[in-house]
Amino acid sequence: MGRRACLAALLLLCVAVLRAAGMEAADEEGNQDESLESEALPAEDQVKDRSTGTRVVAGQIFLESGKSDSQPEDEESFHSQEEVKENSLGELNSLDVSDLLNKDLEDEEMQSPVLTAIGGTADGEPCHFPFLFMEKEYAECTADGREDGRLWCATTYDYKKDQKWGFCETEEQSNKRRQMQEAEDIYQTGMKILNESSKKAQKKEAYQYLLKAAEMNHTKAMEKVSYALLFGDYLKQNIQSSKELFEKLTEEGSPKGQMALGFLYASGLGVNSSQAKALVYYTFGALGGNLIAHMILGYRYWAGIGVLQSCESALTHYRLVANHVASDISLTGGTVVQRIRLPDEVENPGMASGMLEEDLIQYYQFVAEKGDVQAQRAFEYFNQAANAGNSHAMAFLGKMYSEGSDVVPQNNETALQYFKKAADMGNPVGQSGLGMAYLYGRGVPVNYELALKYFQKAAEQGWVDGQLQLGSMYYNGIGVKRDYKQALKYFNLASQGGHILAFYNLAQMHATGTGVMRSCHTAVELFKNVCERGRWSERLMTAYNSYKDGDSNSAVVQYLLLAEQGYEVAQSNAAFILDQKEASIVGENETYPRALLHWNRAASQ
């Protein structure tokens, strides 16, 4: 099935390339490094290695002439890729792909792995799985019992009795595998420091580990380092070095590398601008499951940038991204995004600083980044305020205990106590929390009537959770008669309060024509709003901070990527920085034309 998917992906890509008139695209071949996890093998006499033209993949030996299997994708990438293919395969009516797919599957069935021992006492004999060694059965090659860590197998069931064995890899392959394991260890050390620290000096130290792992060709480390070099995050900004890493990642089939290379060609950073090449790399990235690539393609089809304008194509890409964003949102409505416009900030310095209460921002950050330093600070603040009789703090403590995290253990009983205290004081957040408890039976028996009652009380006071949940109850007919008109009413109210899930639900209703006249245009605008509240929106504040710190080059690159994703405020800010000639990273002849381009894109939204 994996090879069928790969072939379908290539066919889709061909269609995308043909559609981009005048496109020049070089064929890319992925030479993805095969990394093997080392496990702790039998101490025997050393033997000579005999190269048999084979390579090791996850403990198995394949003939070099055979085709390599793709590396397994993570669940998110798999679903993203499959959804796009299903939506796009209908466009391939003119191609008879069934014969090609069937032939490919037949070839795949004919090829089977050859598990042959190298050297040892049974050179050339097939490995026997499972085999018994030290009273333990092994279903694959192992390194147990060997000090050098090389993988081996037995060629009969009982190793102790027959002493028949051989290596599963050559010495060169073994060294490469151990090197990749060392790189993985260095990468994990760097990520641990990066995730657990909030100090700039420690984050810079973390990137030194990642830099070392990247030099050892560790893919994930190269991804982190390449983006850090692109934006100037904890490493000195270097567009040329980041481009070289992106090209290397693209050759290995990295969707993040492909998306980033598309961005460089779209913005003309480090390369000659080419919208055709940008579209090819964005398409590669999207087929690999990269959500930012999907978002960029969604915006391009919506605005008709480098492609024919297509609402339905935009809907396909935006809905896929919105599904992931919505699944990552808590019932508080998601992260708070401060969309600061640089021209306004220059005219009125500090005008954005009072937009939101600092402690409320901390809570939203806690929800979005569970386990972060902000979580502990928010928890301590709400505890103090709750002890002082603040009903809002009691309700938010209830939410923390209800949702659970590394800092606050999940506890329905404690959550219920706080929700009740807050609700008794007329707090809408507490009332909504009680409604959730009765709706899902958290600490109390399920009672739809009481759930409806508390949601209505919260909704009457304008709390978005109450409005959203009322809409959901009417939409699904839970505890009430199904009523799409009422659902639409409450989803609209919740969306006015900025709840992402309300935008998402409204988008689904307009996309499918449920309870309303189907409108692709409305659905796309709503899904776009949801997508723009994803975690990547935090880059807006990072870019703003870079600008405030006087690093216009870093700020403009960050704003340019966000502009590609369709953020109107990022387009305005990128245009402003270019207009002011504050970014030396963009060529002098390119500055004003690019500024005009982004002013126009922002104005059209």
UniProtKB/TrEMBL annotation:
Q: Which UniProt keywords apply?
A: Disulfide bond, Repeat, Signal
Q: Which domain of life is it from?
A: Eukaryota
Which residues lie in Basic and acidic residues bias regions?
A: 77-88
**Which Cys residues form disulphide pairs?**
127-153, 141-168
Instruction: Give residue spans, biased composition: Acidic residues.
Output: 27-37
Key word Protein biosynthesis present in the record? no
Q: Which Pfam families match?
A: fn2, Sel1
**Coiled coil (UniProt feature):** none
**What are the GO BP annotations of this UniProt entry?**
ERAD pathway
Cellular compartments per GO CC: endoplasmic reticulum membrane; extracellular matrix
Q: Which InterPro entries match?
A: FN_type2_dom (IPR000562), FN_type2_sf (IPR036943), Kringle-like (IPR013806), Sel1-like (IPR006597), Sel1_AlgK (IPR050767), TPR-like_helical_dom_sf (IPR011990)
Signal sequence region: 1-20
Q: Which SMART domains match?
A: FN2, SEL1
Any idea where the Fibronectin type-II domain is? 122-170
Name the family: Belongs to the sel-1 family.
The protein's name in its UniProt record:
Fibronectin type-II domain-containing protein
Organism of origin is: Callipepla squamata
